[in-house]
Design brief:
This protein is an alpha+beta fold and 428 residues long. It has 14 helices and 18 strands. The two termini are 37 Å apart. The model has no long low-confidence stretch (mean pLDDT 95).
Amino acid sequence: MSATPALDLAALRAAAERGSVDHAFALAQALVAQEQMDEAMQWHLRAAQAGHPGAQVEYARMRLYGIVDAPAPQDAVPWFERAERAGHPLATEYLAKIAIGGVALPRDMRMNERVLRGVQAEHAPSLLAAAVHFGRKPNADDQVLCLQLLERAAGRGDIAAAVLLAERLAHGEGCEAQPDVAQRLWAQLADAGIERVPGFSLPPPGRADAPARQLALEEALQAPEARVLSTQPHVSVIDRLLSADECRLLIVSARPHLHASRTLDPNSGQALNIDLRTSHDAQFDPVLESLAVRLVQWRMAAAAGLELVDAEPLIVLRYAPGQEYKPHRDYLPPASIARDGPQAGNRRRTICVYLNPMTAGGATEFPVAGLRVDPLPGRAVVFDNLTYDATSPQGRPDPDSLHAGMPVEAGEKWLATLWIRQARYRAF
C-alpha cells in the first residue's frame, strides 16, 4: 500500500474518532474499498446510529447480504426503514426488493408505493423496474409510459434501460419505429463497450383488461396457462411468460458476468469444466440482482408454482453455434446438497425461459418422454426433478427427468434458468 492512502485513512480515522459522522461514513467506505469489512461495518454502524442515512443503507446492506456475519434480512429492514424515512431512495428500493421474497417483509401494497416513490425521486433502478412492468401491458397509454420511463432511466445512466429503449425504438414498440434514433443510441452504447442484444419483437404479454397506468407488481403472480406436454416426466410449457423487455433485460444484465459453464460431478458434488456442458453462463448472486431482475425471477418462480426464496440464484446461459448441454438431470448429488444449502433439500423443479429466437437448433429434449420443445422468446419450460408418492413422501430423484439442450446449429441461444429447491434456500 502506498503512503498516501495510509495517511488519508489515518486522517479519516482521527476525524471519525473525534465524532464527525460524515468522516465516520467516509472512513467506512474507504475500509470497504480496502476489503477491511469488519472494521468498515463497525464504522457504518456508528455513523448509522448517529443518523447518517447513507451509513444506514450501507450497514443494512452488509447485514442483508451477510458481508461479515450470516445474512440477516430481519436486522437489515429497520435500518433501511430509518434511511427511507430520511428520504434515501436506495433504501426504498431495497425494501421493495426484500418484500418480493415475502419473508422479512410482507408482499403488500407498500411494494408498489415504494417503487412509485422511487420513480418520483428519479431513482434509475425504480424507473427501469416500473418501465418493464408497464411494458408488459397492451394498453397504448402503458406502452407510452414504458418508453418515457426508459428514457428517464437511460438519461440517468442506466445501461439496461438504454438498451431496452433502443430496441423499442428500432422495432416500433409503443411508438412509431425510429431506426435512426435507435442507431444513434446503439452507437453510443457501442462506444461504452455494450453489445447489441438479439433483435426481435413480441407483442405485450399482459392482460388486455388490466387497468391502465396502474403499478401493480403483484401481477407477476398471474402466469399464462401452462400446457402439459408429459406426465412422466412432468413437463409443461408456458408461452409468452416473459416480455421482450424482460428477455432483453436478462441478456444485457448477464453479459458482463459470463464465464465458461461448469457441471457438478455426481459423486463429489464439485463443479468441473467438462464437455457435458459447453455454454457460457452468468449467475446472479443476490448482490447483482437489480429490482427489475428480481421481479422477473418472482414471475418465473410463481409460474413454476413455487416461492422465489426456495430458488437458487438465477442462471442466464448463452450457447454459441455448436454448443450444447448433453443429456443430464438437474437433481443434486448428496455431496452437493451437503455443501450448499442442506436445509433446502434437493432441486424440486426447474423453470427455463428462452430469451431470443433461434436461427436453427437449440431445442430442449426429454428422451424418456420422446419430447422436444422448440425455443421461442419468452417461452418457459417447467419440469419436475423429483417424484412424490406414498413410498417417497419427501421426494426422490426422478431418473426420467433426463433432458438435454440440443446443439445450436446457427445463431446463438440465450436461456434463463431457476432451479427451485424443496424448501427455503435464499435469505430473503
